[in-house]
Recover the amino acids of this structure.
């Protein structure tokens, strides 16, 4: 009985270690910096449930944008279905700067595993009203679907957008 | 008859062709060799070491001149310039078309000390802008700390392949205070000049409290849609076209609506440490993202002002007092250092402004802003050390 109790305690502790989500403050600290770069190792050390905290930060409309932008970008390190759905939603439904970053994060995190899903989203974003979102989608399309990219160049009315898309 | 004529004509034709071919060949060889030495398209006059005429920057005691260079036996380009007895500071800049890698090899003061050499004391080895070979532009600022001064006499330099060398030389009386002119620009259509006025006031107050008066010109709106979001790479064609519009008599702050591409996650960036001063070019300004500084639907004026002050500090030659890991610090001896070994309380390898309170976390040039909770509690980054102020007061773009 005593040994069973010890095993239960050990199991409970270990389970606690593996599933504990990091504090929001811990994640936020990794999103700080004036000239921020994604620190892959530090995020991965935070554990699997970090994506839930990042989704919470990315969706928090009361937070300053730079933290929300970076949270979306960091989500590319956690390629779960939950993450993909969240990024797709933000790429299509949010304001343009966040939409572009949602698409970029989806592309970075999911193109290797779900290329068709990313391509479908990119194809829709080629018609986005915001030029920077179109440019982002077009640059991706250029590398994966040259005929579609050429069609985009023919249909795009802004010459500077066509020029930027080809950079 | 015809054959006779042909026989007579052919040798002279052959000789003419031979001479033309030889001349073309030698010319192309010469061009090739010159190109290899980095002096392509330079005339004999340009290679003779004679400096061109000076241009004074409006309202400043700073003159811009181009220095001609000669090719040494070591294949490096070399030149010299004279700092007069009332010399205050200078920025020596080299440029290379097509944005190829470029850097200085040495800069020797009138006493014979190469301030870019690791064996000199003090030195700017691995500190001068372009030390790793920047794209298209590199420079050296004197003084970049009070340990250096623009000594009177002849300075000599050597540089790797470049197209031209410019000197911005400030003269006059020793500065005890300084005034710097700021030219703000705003891009995109989401925000207007009025939206950034509070942030500009914050920036002005920060510098004023540190002995620097800012004269802030009226904000210029650049409404062309291609400039709404630009890359943070100053050699990008769009960014270059934007920044080149900057004033030559001011520090240019480009409040862009957003960054594009891989730069989308930063708050702002300067064209160098320092960037260019007094010359219209791709490196004559800083970029600051407006969208990144928005909470809800309003700009965070305090943070935006601090970012503008920070990027301007870089543009004028100030480094981060402490870098993110807490193991790299600026070259100034009076700025607080926040050490990883004693201050990284949460052991995450990142020095936060909160962990570094009292150890540089409140400095304008700390690597990261205060976190949102601290900012809500009124924490600010508004201090500059005496040595940081010295660099700004002596700047070639100040008066």
């Amino acid at each position: 009985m005593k040994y069973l109790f010890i095993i239960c305690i050990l199991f409970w502790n270990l389970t606690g270690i593996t599933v504990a989500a990091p504090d929001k403050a811990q994640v936020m600290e990794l999103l700080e910096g004036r000239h921020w770069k994604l620190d892959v190792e530090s995020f991965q050390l935070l554990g699997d449930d970090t994506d839930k905290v990042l989704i919470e930060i990315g969706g928090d409309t009361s937070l300053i944008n730079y933290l929300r932008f970076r949270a979306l970008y960091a989500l590319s390190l956690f390629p779960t279905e939950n993450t993909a759905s969240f990024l797709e939603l933000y790429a299509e439904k949010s304001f343009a700067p966040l939409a572009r970053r949602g698409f970029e994060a989806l592309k970075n995190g999911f193109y290797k595993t779900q290329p068709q899903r990313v391509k479908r989203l990119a194809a829709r974003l080629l018609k986005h009203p915001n030029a920077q979102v179109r440019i982002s989608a077009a640059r991706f399309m250029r590398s994966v679907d040259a005929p579609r990219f050429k069609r985009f160049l023919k249909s795009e009315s802004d010459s500077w957008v066509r020029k930027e898309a080809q950079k | 008859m015809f054959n006779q004529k042909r026989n007579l004509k052919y040798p002279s034709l052959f000789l003419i062709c031979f001479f033309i071919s030889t001349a073309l060949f030698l010319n192309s060889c010469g061009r090739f060799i010159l190109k290899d030495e980095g002096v392509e398209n330079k005339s004999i006059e340009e290679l003779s070491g004679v400096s061109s005429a000076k241009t004074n920057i409006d309202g400043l005691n700073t003159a811009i001149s181009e220095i001609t260079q000669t090719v040494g036996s070591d294949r490096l380009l070399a030149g010299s310039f004279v700092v007069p007895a009332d010399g205050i500071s200078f920025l020596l800049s080299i440029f290379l078309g097509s944005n190829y890698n470029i850097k200085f090899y040495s800069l020797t003061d009138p006493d014979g000390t190469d301030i870019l050499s690791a064996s000199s004391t003090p030195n700017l080895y691995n500190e001068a802008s372009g030390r790793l070979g920047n794209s298209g532009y590199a420079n050296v600022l004197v003084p970049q700390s009070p340990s250096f001064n623009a000594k009177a006499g002849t300075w000599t330099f050597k540089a790797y392949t470049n197209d031209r060398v410019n000197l911005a030389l400030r003269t006059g009386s020793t500065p005890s205070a300084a005034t710097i002119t700021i030219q703000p620009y705003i891009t995109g259509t989401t925000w207007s000049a009025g939206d950034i006025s509070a942030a500009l006031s914050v920036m002005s107050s920060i510098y004023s409290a540190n002995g620097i008066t800012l004269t802030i010109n009226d904000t210029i709106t650049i409404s062309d849609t291609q400039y709404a979001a630009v890359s943070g790479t100053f050699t990008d064609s769009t960014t270059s076209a934007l920044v080149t519009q900057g004033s030559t008599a001011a520090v240019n702050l480009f409040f862009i609506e957003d960054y594009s591409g891989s730069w989308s996650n930063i708050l702002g960036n300067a064209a160098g440490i320092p960037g260019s001063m007094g010359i219209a070019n791709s490196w004559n300004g800083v970029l600051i993202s407006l969208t990144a500084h928005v909470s809800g639907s309003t700009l965070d004026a305090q943070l935006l002002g601090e970012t503008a002050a920070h990027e301007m500090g870089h543009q004028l030659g100030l480094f981060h007092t402490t870098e993110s890991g807490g193991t790299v610090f600026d070259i100034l001896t009076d700025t607080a250092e926040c050490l990883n070994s004693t201050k990284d309380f949460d052991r995450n390898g990142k020095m936060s402004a909160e962990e570094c309170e009292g150890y540089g976390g409140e400095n304008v040039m700390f690597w990261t802003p205060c976190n949102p909770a601290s900012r809500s509690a009124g924490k600010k980054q508004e201090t500059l050390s005496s040595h940081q102020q010295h660099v700004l007061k002596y700047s070639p773009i100040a008066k």
